[in-house]
Amino acid sequence: MSESKHFTVDIGEAPVYPSSEKPVSKRNWISDNARERASTFISDWTPFGLVSSYFVFSTCLYMYCTERLIAIFWFIYMCTNFYIAGATVLEAFMSVTPCREARKVVTEAEEKGWLFPTANDQLPVLDLLIVAYLPNEQDIIMDRALYALEQIDYPRDKIRINILYNTPKAIEPLETKLHALAEKYSHARVIKVPNSTSKADNLNYFFTLDTGSDLIAIYDCDHYPHPNAPRWAAERFMADKEVDIVQGRCIIFNSDETFLTSMIAVEFDKIYAVSHPGRATMWGFGLFCGSNGYWRTSLLRDLKMDGSMLTEDIDSALRAFSRGSKTVHDLNVTSYELAPTTFPAFWKQRLRWAQGWAQASMKHVKMVYNKPMEPLHDGYNRDFTARFGVLSLLLIREASYYLVTQYTCLVISFIIVKFPKSGEELWKLVYFQYPVSQWLFIISVICLIATLWITNQVKSEFVSRKMIILFSVLYPFYLILAATIGLYGHARQIVKYSSWNPTARK
Fold first, then answer.
1. Residue 177 three-state SS
2. CB-CB contact of 133 with 148 (8 Å)
3. Residue ranges per domain, the chain?
4. Between the CA of residue 302 and those of 155, 262, 309, 431, what are the distances in Å?
5. H or E stretch including 268?
6. Is the torsion defined by CA of 259, 261, 265, 266 positive or negative?
7. What is the DSSP letter of 273?
8. Mind listing the pLDDT tens digit for each residue in 119-173?
9. pTM score, two decimals?
């Protein structure tokens, strides 16, 4: 460490000085308040109106299309579904290799009595950041801080556990207890970030501090990092000097709380254990996903976080990739987190993600054709595979929301115009309107089964086979829901919706 003294930082509230302006009359205040509420109402509900109109208009349009035109649309949408299923299963098969390598590394370490390759005194200095917004996470922050301070297995002279938090109002006695941690634990640092309104503000403030670290790990407040996660990540950096970012696997541990959390747990296993490592292998680049990610300090301090982006983590990951950073997904760097337990909380979280992805996609899709700016590594040049991967991730993925929902509207129009009288008629109506549909549908189902079979092989200890089966049955509805959320995110971006809705944690 560059300094042996441990400290807490509490800047406190900025002083309020008397205003020299004339007081606002009660009538004007009521008028301004009414305008603000009206503006907020319009901003909140305009996206709903846009998405609802989209579904109604599209369904009505198909009701008046000719049979020949319907056949063309049907073929396009079935081909699209086939592409999505095919790309997904390819990612799944590509994930098999990194999964095997991760297991092999664990087996070798176990055989050596958990003796890691790098000696303790040679490990990089690590700043582990726990980022919190107290009003929403006041019930869990002390628990997570104590867990990180006491359970993480990393030499204490090589790690600092930094609790970064912001709050619009003082919360006592919690804040006093938090700051007292630095007196009890030599490797603790507690920072109340002044004038912060977001996670990006918290992080950017920390980046201005000279802590002397080699690596920075970022965790959301609801996470329990595996005790060995920082060590596994450090070993990846030590083994390959060109690695700039290590993204770990996030696992949902409250899967048995509600049906919703069980489905999210399966989704996270599919994303973090299958899709992310598979995509990194197939397209040649990985991504930092917001939490349980480790960065080289120099790179992260240089890039910082863009507070204007709703998903500043994805934006920072894409900015890093635009400069040729090497990001690896390590399945041994695991962390356990909470899933939203109610649908409204899930809906708010996913809408924020969807709009953030839309922002990031519009900003960074130019990587498909432009040249890398200020590459981090000599000789780096974005090849065709990586460019097509960017196209698939940013453009085709965003466009797929329209294709999936258009297919849904087409089916709804069939049901309205040709209402089925039996389950068999409904089955034929939805899937087998035209002969080519049979093959495309069957192949898509095989791809889905293969993807979920691979997911079952790497499922976490909190996911059961029954959960995976239920997720498989509901997968078509999951795709429609995800596509609708994606459209909603686009609608919010059109109206410049900018409210930040943090997820409540208990």
1. helix
2. no
3. 45-122+241-292+304-327+341-506
4. 27, 39, 17, 51
5. helix 259-268
6. positive
7. I
8. 999 999 999 999 999 888 999 999 999 999 999 999 999 999 999 999 999 899 9
9. 0.85
